[in-house]
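#struct-queue
[09:14] JT: dropping the first one here, sequence first, then the structure tokens:
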Amino acid sequence: KVTSSTSCKVTSSISCKITSSISCKVTSSTSCKVTSSTSCKVTSSISCKVTSSISCKVTSSTSCKVTLSTSCKVTSSTSCKVTSSISCKVTSSISCKVTSSTSCKVTSSISCKVTSSISCKVTSSISCKVTSSTSCKVTSSTSCKVTSSTSCKVTSSTSCKVTSSTSCKVTSSTSCKVTSSTNCKVTSSTSFISGFTFFAESYDNIIQRFRNGETINILIGIYRKSQS
């Protein structure tokens, strides 16, 4: 269900299989993009709900694009077969087109309901499978981007909520797994201290002298090794 959203199109180029319904709900978010370059599989998780949002895109180079529009278009590039009903219901929208050219199979109903929305596009290029999805909610977020170059898998996630986040970017080159994260920041800092050596008494002796109230003088020797 899409309520007061913008830009939703469904397009698949090769072998797009969708099983047990995709319910994409978009609520009060802005520019949510998911991009993966190779083999993006989502299993027992996707039910992305976004309300009153603008341009929700799910994009992968060998997988899936989901966009919303007035003119809900379903397009596949080769031999499109539709089984057990595509019930596209559009309320106060314009022009619902279905175009097929090569091997697009849709099973157990895609019920696309659009209410006062504009331009809904779903695009997948190679082997997009979605199975038994569950409640991923994004609420009042801004520019959330997830990008992975190879084998991005999200498996059996439940109720992934991102609330009032701003510009959350996750980028990985291989095997990117994301599970129910909120405002995740990773900062890798490295500090090097070299050329210092610490000379002192044994730990037990120092502790005992502290307990006795003694004043302890600790000598720190600083040296630099020559190249020879």
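[09:21] JT: and here's the second one, same format:
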Amino acid sequence: MNHTYISLGSLFLAAAGIIYGLERLSSYIYWHALVTDGSGYPTEPDTFLLFSNLFVPLFLVIAIIFYIFHFKGVNKDLS
């Protein structure tokens, strides 16, 4: 059985998670820089919503499509 679709789906899912994690990390680093500066700072960092970056939902949709293609192929092979 070919695992190309499941591998690509996992790759796109991991890429979406990494991009989202890096966005959150950068916002926390920026917030920490404001806190240590001593000037007025917000009490909580500005975190981005999941769909604020175009690539995160795009990669999630591509990953889901690859998973669907994989499982359709698996069901076709079983019947």
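[09:30] RK: nice, looked through the second one.
[09:31] RK: The chain has a mean pLDDT of 84.
[09:31] JT: good to know. Residues 27 and 47 are 6 Å apart (CA to CA).
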